[in-house]
Amino acid sequence: MPHLRSLLPFSLLSTLTWAVAALVAMPAHGATLDCDGQALQPGQCYFSHGIVHYPDRVSDGALEGTVVGSADVHTRFNCRASNDSRRQVLIGLDTSTSYDAATGNARSSYPGLQMEIPATSSTIGGHLHQTFLARRFGTSAGACLSGELDHSIDIVRHGSIAAGKQTFGYDPNPVFVSAPGATSAAYFRTHASLNIEYIEVVMPSCGMVTSNIGLPDIDLGKMPSAGDVAGATVADLVVFCSNATAFTYRLDVEHGAYVVKEIGLLANAAGGATAAAGIGVQVEQKVPGQSQFSTLRFGHLYTEASPESVTRIPLRASYFRLSSQASGGQVAAAMVVTLNYY
Q: What is the pLDDT of residue 315?
């Protein structure tokens, strides 16, 4: 009786762009200095050629508080380092107006999806609720700094989300900020806001096909001693998925009892005078990505993190002689497979 649940994939990335940044506010104090053609004060930045990649789709089966994808931020910057011994500039995104105190993250325009604000965000200019992107150091106090930066911001599920296609972005859109240093109260804002695009929430699904493993008739003499195995037979557990990024599975006994569950050893469930005595069934598996069969632990949760559309998990069953006192006869065992997918 498989369980069925869900999580996310995101595949194609949608590319978003924003216009060249214009500085919003200039402090009244201090003279501006030319820095590669831009009039900048120490700790101030000019941003341009910004791009953000959002995931094209995520899953409505994502668990509460889990990461469902990431937004990749790219921008070019032109900065002047702080005019002190730190010789640095801090770059980030202002998410204070979209901050959710209940989760500690920034709300997006898609209900249930938020942008993660890491703990280091509090270091930007002494202001809380900023999403920290980068720290750059100059060769000297007030030195000009220019270049490009890339940063990934996790998208996290908080609350219920509905399947469908909606616009996605910060709500409201944040702006770039820069600050002279970690303890400074002065920081600068720009109009270089992150645009929005469509994101699709999809319903993942998985199923499985199991097969009977028919062991051959063998002579008891092929297992002369306790611990001997014979009659190994292989059959696949087949899992097929659509829009799922992970699944877990667990095997348990259905009829009979375990002998040693940590090595996949089952007692003979056949009854009556025709049942074999002193004989059990051992089950092994070949985990995806492995070339050899390994011990199966009944009751253990196995995870396949990046499933194909069809994933085959080979299972191998063998007769197992439990003791020196054994007799021939019928042998039977059954397992139940529990599947969870995300």
A: 93
